[in-house]
């Protein structure tokens, strides 16, 4: 081998900067699409419906630009300088404080989900408004129809996944930014170069002195210049803080400032063009190219918010705060699609677009939603400063007070337009928040029931002979939320039908507060706990069963070694756990693994269980749409295993034989009801609210991608 030809590794700092530059480029299409399309509607929303006609003058335009400039400078820059990603913990004793914190977080999450409805509506409708600035002015009906067609197409695109065209998102936003940069320069030079003086905050004082209370209400339109800033926080899991800062400081910020300055220069000499200020300021020769780019940029901005909505719903579900939904992964890079949420968002977006038909009213709703999210985020950030960073309460109070004074002014102005569209995000947030809290509360009550009604494994093993339990070939995976002990559904099952599989594995699937769990750290074996990060993908490809068998085999070997080295005979059956690697190289000392690719016409793994094979014909019609290539793994013991004790070797052979016989998944089909002695509110939440959500959401088997042919559901009523 020619070792002299190997290229030496580059400087780590060079690698870091190269990575950050690539991420900064990619962030334009994911993070900044919404923020960069704000110039389409900020000035109209600042003046129309907020500032009466007597205040439509050059001095007011200069003051409005000064407000936009300082808003865009202070809020986003303060956001990107405060990067945090550490999870918070809180003492369980402070139950009321934890409940208040939960409600605040659910409110913010519900508002972000509501933004998934409002952002596509205002972005697409504003981009289409350019058709009313042409010589052949389109009617409101034509404009609305075209906007609805684009919105339907946008949501329909989610099903097939946007990863095939996602590489175009960043170039579209960059071209859009460069376009509005040059248009801004042109308008400054051509119409009113004196606009540059409006950077001085003195113009803000003059603005409020002239407009009074009307100027304060106009802040509800000014705040739209920073809508989309929250995306810089929500996407820090995908991008580094350095890449976010680079993209904003060197391209996004200067392009937006110059564009707003150019629009203000144009409006100072063309006050009658305020209703369609952006397109009216575009020079005629480049109007149609800019219109096309603006429409594409609006679609990209809407797409990024829709994707973020899917992501936050999946994370809420993983943390037990959202009803079960079907998550379809449209690419191997983590992009996802949630059918139910997608169509709900589409219906709500079309309803908002058709119902309001006005970007001013939608802007009132959008601005209030974004400002509430910022207001809550600032409070949570203050808690992080104290609880996570362990800084002084004085510093946290100073931070909270300073930002709340600024944000409070914008929030109070946004609330003044509550009757003119501002009620929409509050209604949407209440609906989503109620569903999230009802689901969280009821599932926690169900978990408490399981916790107090579990039985020990030792008790169940001792009860086996008296029940006369018949053991059948195969592996039974019993799903439970309990980390230790036998769940109530299993004891309920075996006491009524005393028969079960030869190998029983109690599986507890947990979502942990980290994005991803390494495959070699996924299985915590004893009572088998399978740990997924809230961004991990659970696939139905047979790999789960294979990794589980390898982990159990290693645990059997490890446990045998522990028992030999321990003089204590009275080992507890509960609570013995170990993190075991599911990597094949680790278990090669115990098992031999042979992989055979075969065609399975039903699209599911073959089983040697005669019972399962007899059911095959029932499902042939359901799965006959072509053949699916499956990978089948066959296990055997290595020569090294001959040195093991006979009982350990026999246990491993039983495990392999059971795997060959087939795997069955046992889950509880639970009905949760409030006790008769419960309060009317608890009965309302559980008997009506939770029951409705449970009946209309996906079952746990769908959420966990469990093969339907191998599923056994055990019905049980929980009185909580």
UniProtKB/TrEMBL annotation:
Pfam families: K_trans, K_trans_C. One of its GO terms (cellular component) is plasma membrane. Signal peptide: none annotated. It is found in: Cell membrane; Membrane. Residues 23-460 form the K+ potassium transporter integral membrane domain. GO terms for molecular function: potassium ion transmembrane transporter activity. Keywords: Ion transport, Membrane, Potassium, Potassium transport, Transmembrane, Transmembrane helix, Transport. It comes from the Eukaryota. It is a multi-pass membrane protein. Residues 473-552, 628-718 form the K+ potassium transporter C-terminal domain. The chain crosses the membrane at residues 21-42, 62-85, 97-122, 142-158, 165-189, 216-234, 246-266, 286-313, 334-354, 366-388, 395-416, 422-439, 459-479. Potassium transporter. Belongs to the HAK/KUP transporter (TC 2.A.72.3) family. This is Potassium transporter. It comes from Brassica carinata. The lineage of its organism: Eukaryota, Viridiplantae, Streptophyta, Embryophyta, Tracheophyta.
């Amino acid at each position: 081998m020619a070792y002299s030809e190997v290229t030496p590794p580059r400087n780590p700092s060079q690698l870091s900067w190269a990575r950050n530059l690539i991420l900064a480029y990619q962030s334009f299409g994911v993070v900044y699409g919404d923020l960069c399309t704000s110039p389409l509607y900020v000035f109209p929303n600042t003046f129309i419906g907020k500032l009466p006609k007597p205040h439509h003058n050059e001095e007011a335009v200069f003051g409005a630009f000064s407000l936009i400039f300082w808003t865009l400078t202070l809020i986003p820059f303060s956001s990107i300088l405060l990067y945090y990603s550490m999870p918070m913990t809180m003492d369980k004793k402070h139950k009321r404080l934890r409940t208040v914190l939960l409600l605040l977080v659910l409110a913010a999450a519900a508002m972000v989900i509501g933004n998934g409805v409002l952002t596509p509506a205002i972005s697409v409708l504003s981009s289409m408004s350019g058709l009313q600035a042409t010589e052949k002015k389109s009617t409101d009906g034509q404009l609305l129809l075209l906007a609805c067609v684009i919105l339907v197409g946008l949501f329909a695109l989610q099903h097939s996944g946007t990863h095939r065209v996602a590489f175009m998102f960043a170039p579209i936003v960059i071209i859009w930014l460069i376009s509005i940069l040059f248009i801004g320069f042109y308008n400054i030079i051509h119409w009113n170069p004196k606009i540059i003086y409006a950077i001085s905050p003195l113009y803000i004082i003059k603005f409020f002195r002239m407009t009074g209370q009307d100027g304060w209400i106009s802040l509800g339109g000014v705040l739209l210049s920073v809508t989309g800033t929250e995306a810089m926080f929500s996407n820090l899991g995908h991008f580094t803080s350095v890449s976010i800062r680079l993209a904003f400081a060197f391209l996004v910020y200067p392009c937006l400032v110059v564009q707003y300055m150019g629009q203000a220069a144009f409006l100072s000499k063309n006050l009658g063009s305020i209703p369609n200020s952006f397109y009216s300021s575009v020079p005629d020769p480049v109007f149609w190219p800019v219109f096309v780019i603006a429409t594409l940029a609006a679609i990209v901005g809407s797409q990024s918010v829709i994707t973020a909505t899917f992501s936050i719903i999946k994370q809420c579900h993983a943390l037990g705060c959202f009803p079960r939904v079907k998550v379809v992964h449209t690419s191997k890079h983590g992009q996802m699609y949630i059918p139910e949420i997608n169509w709900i968002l589409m219906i709500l977006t079309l309803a908002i677009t058709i119902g309001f038909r006005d970007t001013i009213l939608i802007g009132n709703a959008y601005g209030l939603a974004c400002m509430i999210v910022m207001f809550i985020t600032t409070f949570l950030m203050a808690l992080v400063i104290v609880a996570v960073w362990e800084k002084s309460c004085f510093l946290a109070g100073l931070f909270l007070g300073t930002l709340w004074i600024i944000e409070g002014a914008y929030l109070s102005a946004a609330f003044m337009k509550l009757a003119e569209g501002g009620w929409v995000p509050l209604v949407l947030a209440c609906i989503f928040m109620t569903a999230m809290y009802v689901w969280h509360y009821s599932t926690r009550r169900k978990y408490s029931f399981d916790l107090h009604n579990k039985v020990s494994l030792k008790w169940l093993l001792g009860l086996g002979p008296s029940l006369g339990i018949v053991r059948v070939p195969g592996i039974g995976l019993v799903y439970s939320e309990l980390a230790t002990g036998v769940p109530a559904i299993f004891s309920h099952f075996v006491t009524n039908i005393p028969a079960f599989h030869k190998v029983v594995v109690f599986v507890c699937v947990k979502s942990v507060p980290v994005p991803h769990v390494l495959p070699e750290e996924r299985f915590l074996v004893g009572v088998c706990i399978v740990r997924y990060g809230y961004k991990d993908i659970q696939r139905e490809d047979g790999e789960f069963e294979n990794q589980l068998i390898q982990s159990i085999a290693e645990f059997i070997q490890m446990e045998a070694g522990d028992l030999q080295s321990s003089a204590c005979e009275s080992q507890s059956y509960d609570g013995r756990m170990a993190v075991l690697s599911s990597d094949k190289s680790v278990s090669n000392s115990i098992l031999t693994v042979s992989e055979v690719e075969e065609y399975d016409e039903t699209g599911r793994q073959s089983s040697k269980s005669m019972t399962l094979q007899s059911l095959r014909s029932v499902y042939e019609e359901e799965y006959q749409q072509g053949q699916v290539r499956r990978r089948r793994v066959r296990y055997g013991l290595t020569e090294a295993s001959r040195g093991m004790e006979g009982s350990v070797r026999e246990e491993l052979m039983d495990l392999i034989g059971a795997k060959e016989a087939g795997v069955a998944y046992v889950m509880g089909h639970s009905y949760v009801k409030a006790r008769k002695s419960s309060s009317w509110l608890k009965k309302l939440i559980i008997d009506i609210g939770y029951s409705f959500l449970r009946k209309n959401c996906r079952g746990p088997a769908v959420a966990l991608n469990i093969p339907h042919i191998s599923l056994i559901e055990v019905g049980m009523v929980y009185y909580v």
